[in-house]
């Protein structure tokens, strides 16, 4: 049953139980105090009744002076009796207090006790040393008329019965002990369940490397905290598995495809041997070094996209970057085939690393130039519908067998012969997916079209 309780609920229950224990203790002590106060009230009223009876029994023919003298004697005797004749050896806790106040304001009775204000039932403080009290206390009593001769006070000091106080504390202590034992049992049961779950998580993490991060934690735990922990752990394992899988794919592709560019670079360098130095050799060397640089940048681009996900993300303007690539590079690359470039671009913003975006567009432009029919136009468009930005490059060329179109984005797959290594469009696919978009290709009338779609960044979004 405890395993189904959320941790917060368990702590709240424990806190409420502690508050209830404190309330119970205070309640018991309050009950003991009320009992002592009520008992003192009853006894003071009884004392007042006895004193009133004695005053009423005085002879009717007595003069006022004689009557007042008798009342003073009665009050003094009662006050003396309350303190055991001044010895304070009876152990009485609720000591009686008696005062008589004459019409002229003179007060007689219990020593060191001042006349309290008020009338009828009164409650007042009693200083330490009064009526055998070692410490300040509280008294409760009544003020009554002394038969026209003045007023008298009959009161009792009240304090809780030590036996009742002890019983209250014993009850509270017993409840506290039971609560501690129950809390310990609850903590033991919870910790036992938590320990077993944490051991499972630790064992899963220990096996993660050996299992290739493919194993998952049970996410149907009845306790919400552990269910949420399992969900987060599974998300972390899934991401780790995806990352490891990407690195393994990268290793296989680069190991396979690196051989081709390296061999091309080696052959270019070998072709330079034995040639006579001069302008033709320098130009040939520049061209071959440019080819080597292009191959290396393609490989580095795939490594950046696979390994550095989300690193260096920018908010870029696709139209501006496509226009700059055409003007700076492809106008000259298209001269060999007398190609024209036409750009139809709408302003838009996408979130992607600027360098990776440039390489991605460079690859599809280079692919269009490579397979374009001479003396034709390569058409580039950048269009946005508010949610998605589409960057498309279309040429007039031979097209591709529809059954093979999806494969052109696979690393290592190429339709360009020995001069192609199957890295360029694979890189385009990788970058587009990492940026939350996609890329697709299809045949059009008299040509071929590659279209990249990326999420559009809304106006005012943070850079």
TrEMBL record:
SMART domains: HATPase_c
Enzyme class: transferase
Membrane-crossing segments per the record: 168-191
A cellular-component GO term for this protein: plasma membrane
Reactions performed catalytically: ATP + protein L-histidine = ADP + protein N-phospho-L-histidine
Molecular function per GO: phosphorelay sensor kinase activity
Alphabetically ordered keywords of this record: Kinase, Membrane, Phosphoprotein, Transferase, Transmembrane, Transmembrane helix
UniProt-annotated location(s): Membrane
Enzyme Commission number(s) of this protein: 2.7.13.3
A Pfam family matched in the record: HATPase_c
Domain Histidine kinase: 253-458
Name of this chain's protein: histidine kinase
Organism for this UniProt entry: Sphingomonas tagetis
């Amino acid at each position: 049953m405890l395993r189904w309780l959320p941790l917060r609920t368990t702590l709240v229950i424990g806190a409420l139980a502690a508050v209830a224990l404190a309330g119970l203790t205070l309640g018991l002590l309050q009950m003991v105090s009320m009992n002592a106060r009520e008992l003192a009230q009853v006894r003071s009223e009884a004392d007042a009744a006895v004193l009133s009876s004695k005053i009423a029994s005085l002879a009717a023919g007595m003069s006022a002076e004689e009557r007042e003298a008798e009342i003073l004697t009665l009050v003094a005797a009662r006050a003396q009796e309350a303190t055991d004749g001044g010895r304070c050896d009876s152990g009485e806790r609720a000591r009686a207090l008696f005062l008589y106040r004459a019409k002229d304001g003179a007060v007689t009775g219990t020593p060191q006790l001042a006349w309290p204000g008020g009338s009828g039932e009164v409650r007042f403080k009693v200083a330490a040393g009064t009526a055998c009290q070692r410490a300040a206390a509280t008294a409760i009593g009544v003020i009554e008329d002394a038969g026209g001769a003045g007023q008298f006070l009959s009161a009792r000091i009240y304090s809780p019965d030590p036996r009742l106080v002890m019983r209250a504390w014993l009850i509270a202590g017993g409840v506290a002990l039971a609560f501690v034992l129950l809390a310990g049992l609850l903590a033991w049961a919870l910790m036992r369940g938590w320990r077993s779950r944490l051991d499972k998580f630790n064992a899963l993490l220990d096996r993660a490397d050996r299992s290739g991060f493919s194993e998952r934690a049970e996410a149907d735990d009845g306790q919400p905290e552990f269910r949420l922990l399992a969900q987060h752990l599974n998300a972390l394992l899934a991401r780790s598995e995806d990352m490891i899988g990407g690195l393994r794919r990268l290793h296989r592709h680069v190991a396979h495809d690196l051989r081709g560019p390296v061999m091309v670079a080696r052959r270019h360098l070998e072709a330079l041997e034995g040639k006579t130095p001069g302008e033709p050799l320098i130009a040939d060397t520049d061209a071959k070094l440019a080819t080597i640089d292009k191959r290396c940048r393609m490989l580095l681009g795939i490594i950046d996209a696979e390994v550095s996900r989300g690193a260096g993300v920018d908010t870029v303007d696709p139209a501006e970057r496509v226009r700059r690539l055409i003007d700076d590079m492809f106008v000259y690359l298209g001269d060999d085939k007398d190609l024209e470039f036409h750009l139809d671009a709408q302003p838009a913003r996408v979130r992607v690393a600027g360098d990776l975006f440039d390489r991605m567009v460079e690859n599809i432009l280079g692919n269009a130039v490579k397979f374009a029919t001479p003396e034709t136009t390569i058409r580039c468009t950048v269009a946005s519908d508010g949610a998605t930005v589409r960057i498309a490059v279309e040429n007039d060329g031979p097209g591709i067998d529809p059954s093979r179109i999806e494969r052109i984005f696979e690393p290592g797959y190429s339709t360009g012969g020995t001069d192609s290594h199957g890295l360029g469009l694979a890189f385009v696919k990788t970058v587009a997916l990492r940026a939350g978009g996609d890329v697709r290709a299809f045949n059009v009338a008299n040509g071929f079209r590659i279209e990249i779609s990326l999420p559009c960044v809304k106006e005012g979004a943070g850079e």
